[in-house]
Amino acid sequence: MHHIVSDAWSVGIFIRELSAVYNSFVDDEQSPLPALNVQYADFSRWQQHWFQGDVLAKQLSYWKQHLAGAPALLNFPTDRPRPAVQKFQGESRTLVLSRALAESLKILSRRQGATLFMTLLAAFKTLLFRYTGQTDIVVGTPVAGRNRADIEGLIGFFVNTQAIRTQLSADTSFGELLAHVRTAVLEGQARQDLPFEKLVEELQPERSLSHTPIFQVMFALQNVPMPALELSGLTVNSVVATVKTAKFDFSLSFEERADGLVGTLEYNTDLFDDTTMTRLLGHYERLLQDVVNSAETKLGDLELLTAAERAQLLVEWNDTAAERPSLLCVHQQFEQHAESDPNAIAVLCDEQSLTYGELNARANALAHQLRKLGIGTENIVAICTDRTIEMFVGTLGILKAGAAYLPLDPHYPRERLDFMLQDSGASVLLTQELIQELVSKEPDQNTDVPRANIDLDNLAYVIYTSGSTGRPKGVAVSHGALLNLVSWHNSAFNITASDRATLLAGVSFDASVWELWPYLSCGASLDIPPDDLRSSPEGLRDWITERAVTVSFVPTPVAEPMLALEWSNTSKLRMLLTGGDRLHTSPARKLPFAVVNNYGPTENAVVSTSGLIDRDGGAPGTAPTIGRPISNVGIYIVDDRGEPVPVGEILGALDAPRAHRNELGFVGEQREIGGEPRRDPSGAQHAPADAVFVGTSHA
User: Could you tell me which residues come within 8 angstroms of residue 592 by beta carbon, excluding any fewer than 6 positions away?
Assistant: First the structure.
């Protein structure tokens, strides 16, 4: 029966009356049903005449005040972007709460002076708060609307909808929240006669075809017993209809049964996947189990994770341990290739090129010059060059001397360059011209491999952060961390000496580290594109095709438009890597190469997570993930208590002012110039942080 003529209460009346009349007629008896004093039409006329004037004004005044300034939309994380127009397509999932848990919830409710409905609603609001971080939450709930004895036996639509608004925070105890919910529910029920459609008409919220007004989620408890249909001489079974619609983003309704509480979650399939909603139900059940233990627990401390989820987040998804195929530093691996294949091309820049043998000899000469200046292990040598042949010679020469290199962009403001030189304590500054002078081809140049005493704990390079959140800080990265990046990269992407890669990133951008060392350590060649092509998607595509490039890292702002271009089948590109910014959408068309989205803070040696994007193109508007942790790196998303955040929960939900900061903390073997590291409870060292730990699990 459609809601326009019936509600759930009416179904119970209908079943009882059908049973009574049918059984009486089978026995040749008259209908036992008494005549009705009033009909639904009488109720409708009464409502129209009574609900006006002062009665209407008082109820309208309350609801307007109750909802004044309420958020128009619940910021619940969805699996897909909200469509411009709702299609109301839906599915449903069931949650069964045991009889023991149901009884415990009833005992808690009585102890707090509340009803079971109020307790379940308070827990539901807690769940929404933990998922969204919103401290002002409006949830819709139905009320029976049968508050007069004359209409209790009528079939018709009496149900009304109320919008229950609650303010809450991480420091609010569940008992305090329950008291607030109790007050809001009682006050609302005392003013339940105002039709919801009339309230919407009066409030005049900004309307959108993409979502319902006032609230987008609903909660209900059906505690009116539904009688069995018993017909004389017949066996009657109920059939559960399959509903494929959803009136709201999602709605959770419970029904009391002898064996406990049975909940049904109806959700919009345009917004949510089945796995997301199943996980949400599991979190709600876990939350209720924690609530019954103590009503004094703060909302931010209530447990959502099941034991299986906790193991998945902490162990299964971070089982990334992998042995490195070589324990040689990256420049030492380069030296091996220079010795075994000295004539292989290492670097191409415009019309210039250097073989592995030539590059090795020049870098050796520079290293000896640096050693004469007293440069050695743990010294920092600054190098200020463009993306040129000299940059390769300089960085290799610094590493061969046993020092760490600090790349400086010559186009940076003088003040910033001065700050980085002073703050880092760099011993020597190499410029493009100075490198050329130091490695000039004079007869007395020593081109033998210098024997610097270097191990994986020594510094390899220092990169300064952008300073967008304050004073720039130099991040000092060890040879071990760099080696881990290179070993993972070359294994994950099957890099060999036959590959031809690119160097697009500016020298002070940490991606340049990633573009250099994986390829020089395995005998591949690096091609440097002209500056005017670095920000031209079409020009860069054509250059990559012309130069037979096989692997290229392209920063996200340039990669996104490149992925929308047509690509020639003659292109040799097999892998396009991107990162450095958010990748907003998957490729819209089939591509002849793989696309990999990467994420990582400078503090954790460039890349922490990596994910292959579907080369056939993703769903329109779908943002790719940043993938999973790379080898020997652990990813832990935690709240302010250091506890793992459940999948689907918006980061920062437990502290609204930080909800969009997503600040990063880094565990592992990196060090920070100009800042003191601290230790987490596990003893690992990391930089100051709030929410996310990303780190190398061992050196």
Answer: 567, 569, 571, 573
Domain count, the chain: 2
- For the chain, 699 residues long, the average pLDDT of each consecutive 10-residue run is 86 92 94 92 88 87 94 92 94 96 97 97 97 94 87 91 95 96 95 90 92 96 82 87 90 91 96 95 96 93 91 92 92 96 95 94 95 94 94 96 96 92 94 85 76 92 78 91 97 97 92 96 96 93 96 95 92 95 83 93 92 66 82 88 80 37 30 35 30 36
Structural domain span for residue 105? 8-304
What's the start-to-end Cα distance of the chain, in Å?
67
Cα–Cα distances in angstroms (integers) from residue 606 to residues 394, 433, 580, 630, in the given order: 21, 29, 9, 11
Domain for residue 338, yes or no? no
Number of helices and strands (H, E) in the chain? 18, 26
631 contacts 511 by C-beta, under 8 angstroms: no
Whole-Å CA distances, 119 to 114, 292, 295, 297, 576: 7, 10, 10, 14, 52
Residue 280 to residue 456: CA distance in whole angstroms: 45
CA distances from 382 to 435, 477, 675 (A): 12, 15, 20
**Within-domain flag for 285:** yes
What count of Cα atoms within 13 Å lies in the side-chain half-sphere of residue 460? 25
Structure tokens at 695: 């780190």
Segment (H or E) for 320 = none
CATH number of the domain that residue 108 is part of: 3.30.559.30
* 142 close to 223: Cβ distance less than 8 angstroms: no
Helix or strand holding residue 576 (H, E)? strand 575-578
Q: Which residues are paired to 139 by β-bridges?
A: 164
- pTM tops 0.85: no
**How large is the C-alpha radius of gyration of the chain?**
34
Q: How far is CA 377 from CA 76, 217, 383, 396, 460, in A?
A: 52, 61, 17, 14, 9
CA distance 501 to 516: 9
Last residue of a domain, one of 284, 304, 324: 304
Sign of the CA dihedral running 319, 320, 324, 328: negative
- Domain for residue 441, yes or no? no
Is 233 contained in some domain?
yes
Domain limit, last residue, from 287, 304, 321: 304
